[in-house]
Amino acid sequence: MLAAVLLAHGAAAQQADPPNGVLLVARSGLPDANFGEAVVLVSQTAEGETVGVILNRPTTRRHENGEPLYFGGPVMSEVLVALFRSERAPPASAFHVLRDVYLTMHPTNVEALVARPDKTHRLYAGFSGWAPGQLEAEIERGDWMVWPASDELLFRADTRGMWLELWQKAYGKRASAQFSPR
User: Fold this and answer.
1) Three-state DSSP state, 125
2) Are 77 and 128 within 8 A, CB to CB?
């Protein structure tokens, strides 16, 4: 169902859709192995469904063109998802996450991106998703801290330490005393 929502979220609607990406920073000790110490870029559809990709999970896998793949999340892990910069809305469906930044799994967009010589994108295997109301409940329970997204964080070359850095910024010295980098 979530895949249908992603594909149905058309390019025409994007023109009017304001960017709505934020970061979720997992709480320390979150028991879900997919999201332990994760930093997730999320965007919400008009229907209240939330989708995104885990920013700090590089894998050893590579796309057929040699680009590194990140683990985007446990949903449809065989699907290629792209986070990319573009001054214009893409030709096919995509989420408008920041000014001039989009997230898409639509094959038309992904194929065009991997064919370009300039690498203004990052590729993910799979994505993360929540049903309407699910993420709000997890945030209320304290599983996630909401953090503003920035181009710098989304396309950061080295994502190691990203989770701890954001956690420390949010909680200061108290976090530094509790946690040490892996």
Assistant:
1) strand
2) no
Q: Confirm if 129 and 49 have CB atoms less than 8 A apart.
A: yes
Structure tokens at 96: 């408008």
Hey, what are 30's tokens? 């979150």
Q: What digits encode the pLDDT tens for the residues 88-128?
A: 999 999 999 999 999 999 999 999 999 987 888 999 999 99
Question: Parallel, antiparallel, or unpaired for β 121-130 and 68-71?
Answer: parallel
Cβ atoms of 92 and 106 within 8 Å: the answer is yes
Query: What integer pLDDT is reported at residue 46 of this predicted model?
Result: 74
Token pair 């995509």 is at which residue? 94
CB neighbours of 123 closer than 8 A, spacing ≥ 6?
A: 63, 67, 68, 69, 70, 80, 81, 82, 110, 114
CA distance 92 to 16: 15
Burial of 27 (0-12, 13-18, 19+ CB in 10 A): middle
* Measured distance CA(74)–CA(14) in Å, rounded: 26
